[in-house]
Amino acid sequence: MDRLDWTAKWADYTPDKVAITSYDANKSYTYSELHIYANRLVKKFTEFHLEEGDRIAVLADHGLEYMVLFVTCQRMGLVLVPLNYRQSVNEISKLVVDCTPSLFIYNNNHKDKAEQLPIQNLNISTFERLSNYYETSGYLTTQTFQIKEDNPLFIFYTSGTTGTPKGVVYTNKMLFWNSLNTSMQLGITFRDSTINTLPPYHTSGWHVFVTPLLHKGAHIGMLEKFDAEKILCLLELNKTTLFMALPTMLLMMQKTPVFKDVNLRKLRYIISGGEKVPSELVSFWKKEKNIFIRPGYGLTEAGPSITSLHHEMTELKPNSIGKPNFYLDIKIVNTNGETVKPYEVGELCIKGDIVTPGYWNNSVKTSNKIKKGWLFTGDFAYSDNEGFLYIKGRKNDMYISGGENIYPQEIETQLEQIEAIKKAVVLSVKDDKWGECGIAFVTSTNKDLSVTEIREELKNNLVAFKHPKYIFILDEIPITSVGKVSRKKLNKYFNALKSQQ
Questions:
Q1: pLDDT tens digits along 425-481
Q2: By three-state DSSP, how is residue 425 classified?
Q3: Which of 12, 18, 120, 381 is most buried when burial is the number of CB atoms within 10 A of its CB?
Q4: At what angle do helices 247-254 and 279-289 cross, to 10 degrees?
Q5: DSSP sequence for 269-323
């Protein structure tokens, strides 16, 4: 039995324990069933002459079939390519052409898009509804598999918010060390459980809790789409112990009618990240539900479990992303590659077995991002005297106005300290006078709040050259499919306003 075949191990140790539950299908698989079903799918894929290194592109919601497919791919050395079903047919087509899959799998929810893709032109075989091939088969096997740690297991395409989407290669080695880091930080055991509502095309949908809990023989609940009220009820009903949610999701949950009534006493931690986790959000959940939110930091190219702030430090170190997880090294460097001192801002770099070997079909991008084993994250950060880390902002987000380096996240923090402002996002645009200038988009709890009042409040807390040139008050901030701010939509909104002037 291979040491990386966690499903086979738990099928031997606790065969009747429920491994995965789909709350959409109202159906569960035990560890024994997950093991057997994956082996049946191995047999079917072998009949299709799939070989180690072949890619399988998937356009489907997260759930039971995806989990069986994951175990199958790991055992056969196949590479799983989860595609973003929220993208247009044109965008998905480009990714399919880039990864050149040998097999394309889709479910009925995305059949319309799947049928418009250039699958036949590329001579790619297709599957719909995988469970037909493994649940009804009587095939049983005691076959064992050698899972190679350096074999690619996933290709995750980045969102493309900073350019063309890039395929990040994710290996079995990354899977193992990320699971170990996550488990050590949170003390995960086989008694734990989670509910995953994050999509499969995002690394967090697999590697924040799903694969670490699979490694520990714990229980994984699956919900295809985030529903704030439903998830609160499920967390209580299932006595869930660990949960991952972006700040936007948590805000939606606390506004639901059932928030005050649900009993979440079994919930040990909520992990949050993906964007800045406001200290007010952490305090609210601690006060109202006595639940600890642990902010952290991760990215597609590493982990994604890279840092974590211990729950006892959230009030002492507000806005910190914590300290590095156990099995990795970090440094913060200036433009000359020299390590900076505490409180000096530089680029955060990561080294360890959780770092990707590179980008699919993009050796130039790989060599630019990974140097002598160090991943240059593109995030500006600094540390305090005790080694706690703070993100200053994306390297690509920083702009220079009148010769001064300006970090949008610093302005956002000041804006959100204004009592009437719920959320703030700052972008930059070209400016004839200053080179670049800032645009702020805010939402407010006070419908009478004016831009003039916001500017007056900023005067007391922010030096004048950092003030946004433009401020817009919106009903809501647009978000992406994984709950992050959609900067693309905000830019389109601003450009539309400019064109009307």
A1: 999 888 877 888 899 999 998 888 999 999 988 987 888 888 999 999 999 888 876
A2: strand
A3: 381
A4: 40
A5: EEEE-SS---HHHHHHHHHHH--EEEEEEEETTEEEEEEE--GGGTTTSTT--BE
CATH label, 397-500, candidates 3.40.50.2000, 3.30.300.30, 3.40.50.300, 3.90.1580.10: 3.30.300.30
Q: How many Cα atoms within 13 Å fall on the side-chain side of residue 478?
A: 10
Rounded-to-integer distance, Cα 404 and Cα 386, Å: 28
Domain spans in the chain, listed from the N-terminal domain onward: 397-500
Reported as half-sphere exposure (CB side, CA atoms, 13 A), residue 354 has a value of 28
The angle, 0 to 180 degrees and rounded to 10, between the axes of the packed helices 31-47 and 64-76 is 60
Q: pLDDT tens digits, residue range 4-24?
A: 999 999 999 999 999 999 999
pLDDT bin (cut points 50, 70, 90) of residue 180 is very high
Is residue 347 within 8 Å of 383, Cβ to Cβ? Answer: no
Please identify which residue in the block is written with the tokens 């380096």: 405
Q: Which residues partner with 106 through β-bridges?
A: 59, 128
Q: Which of 71, 337, 298, 290 is nearest to 181 (CA)?
A: 298
Query: How far lies 125's CA from each of 58, 78, 102, 153, 167, in Å?
Result: 12, 15, 7, 20, 22
Classify the C-alpha dihedral 196-279-256-490 as positive or negative.
negative
- Alpha-carbon distance of 351 to 374, in angstroms, equals 5
Distance of CA 18 to the CA centre of its chain: 25
Q: What is the pLDDT of residues 361-391, one digit of tens each?
A: 988 788 889 999 999 999 999 999 999 999 9
What distance in Å separates the CA atoms of residue 451 and residue 465, rounded to the nearest whole number?
A: 17
